UniProtKB/TrEMBL annotation:
Pfam families per UniProt: Aminotran_4
Spans traversing the lipid bilayer: none
Protein name: Branched-chain-amino-acid aminotransferase
Annotated InterPro entries: Aminotrans_IV, Aminotrans_IV_CS, Aminotransferase-like, B_amino_transII, BCAT-like_C, BCAT-like_N, BCAT_family
Pathway(s): Amino-acid biosynthesis; L-leucine biosynthesis; L-leucine from 3-methyl-2-oxobutanoate: step 4/4; Amino-acid biosynthesis; L-valine biosynthesis; L-valine from pyruvate: step 4/4; Amino-acid biosynthesis; L-isoleucine biosynthesis; L-isoleucine from 2-oxobutanoate: step 4/4
Length: 355
């Protein structure tokens, strides 16, 4: 069954919280807009999505989400331009990736039409929640989790798909230093690393806390087999500039195939920047930091946008990167991608989506 935006029922809140929000001073993902989209999977099918007031979800203690962690999510953003038009960035790619995650976690896939029309109905209802202040946007969190009951270790028979949103500023509040991790692994061959499964993040919290206690903000994960190659950071893919070449490692079943990452590669090529997608040895980074050819590192992701990395720690040594670099790739690429996202530049790759 297909739905159109107008067919999605909307129950409006009587208690808007919008007047309590300081839109010029937003942190990341900590205030939630008035409404959410909900859609239940029962009797082998997704029911019609509906927009309802943002509210707690009541669950039975035997719901399988609590026991077996069947839970996946996406991260997207909506932007409002000076004419009050709402834009999204490659949302169909998020839908595709949500379904890739769903398949791997034995969760029923959500039809594209439900996802896109539900998203549009929600954004139209809460359009006042999309900030216009510079650097801000509405961070959108679609997620699906198992509501079906049972202690039997098997997929649930019922699920809930929800989309909620939070007007947000920067993900990182200050300098980002990363620790290259050699003991713990984020993911393994044949595992769920490529999926946006909630458990992938839970598994990172303890090693990340250890790194934070040492003064780093994020961990850069290395391959679980040899720990010799960098893979990605906790919430973003990683780019490295050695001399004038921009490098990032190939995606695999251990790494999230970031939408920002692939967009940045395309924009860099368009700018005439030499790019290489290849495995990157930790030792290569250490050597390049020592001889000065390591010019930049940055993370790329929806929440992180492009976040410059100030330096990295590896085996009790810190390697700091040049500051105030002229013609920084991170600055150029961030400017190009955000100009497309905020409808300030030509969308030559057809990525912008008008809501
Ligand atoms: N890697 C991880 C582990 C992430 O959580 C994210 C964020 O979604 C990314 C990479 C970047 O992906 P995207 O650019 O699609 O947001
Ligand atoms: C995103 O960038 O959308 C993410 O999902 C990262 C998240 C851990 C904040």
């Amino acid at each position: 069954m297909d739905v159109t935006t107008n067919q999605i029922s909307v129950e409006k809140t009587k208690n808007t919280k919008i007047n309590d929000v300081d839109f010029n001073n937003l942190s990341f993902g900590s205030i939630y807009m008035d409404h959410m989209l909900v859609c239940d999977y029962k009797n082998g099918a997704w029911e019609a999505p509906k927009v309802v007031p943002y509210q707690p979800i009541s669950l039975d203690p035997s719901a399988k989400i609590f026991h077996y962690g069947q839970s996946i999510f996406e991260g997207m953003k909506a932007y409002k331009d000076e004419q009050d038009t709402i834009w999204m960035f490659r949302p169909l790619d998020n839908h595709k990736r949500l379904n890739l995650s769903a398949k791997r976690l034995a969760i029923p896939e959500i039809p594209e039409n439900y996802f896109m029309e539900g998203l549009k109905a929600l954004l139209k209802t809460d359009s006042d929640w999309i900030p216009q202040s510079p650097g801000s946007s509405l961070y959108i969190r679609p997620f699906i989790f198992a509501t079906g009951l049972g202690f039997h270790a098997s997929p649930a028979d019922e699920y809930k798909f929800v989309i909620c949103g939070a007007p947000s500023g920067s993900y990182f509040s200050g300098e980002v230093k990363v620790l290259i991790e050699e003991t713990y692994s984020r993911s393994a061959n044949g595992g769920v690393g490529f999926a946006k499964a909630g458990g992938n993040y839970a598994g990172q919290f303890y090693p990340t806390k250890l790194a934070q206690d040492k003064g780093y903000q994020q961990v850069i994960w290395t391959d679980d087999n040899t720990h010799e190659y960098i893979e990605e950071a906790g919430a973003m893919n990683v780019f490295v500039r050695i001399n004038d070449t921009l490098l990032t490692c190939p995606t695999s079943d251990r790494i999230l195939d970031g939408i920002t990452r692939k967009s940045i590669l395309k924009i860099a090529e368009d700018e005439g920047i030499k790019t290489e997608v290849r495995k990157i040895k930790v030792q290569e980074l250490v050597d390049a930091a020592k001889d000065g050819s390591l010019k930049e590192m940055f993370g790329a992701g929806t929440a992180a946008v492009i976040s410059p990395i100030a330096g990295f720690g590896f085996r009790d040594n810190d390697y700091m990167l040049p500051t105030n670099l002229e013609n920084s790739y991170a600055t150029l690429l961030k400017d190009r991608i955000t100009s497309i996202q905020y409808n300030k530049a030509e969308d030559k790759f057809g990525w912008r989506f008008k809501v």
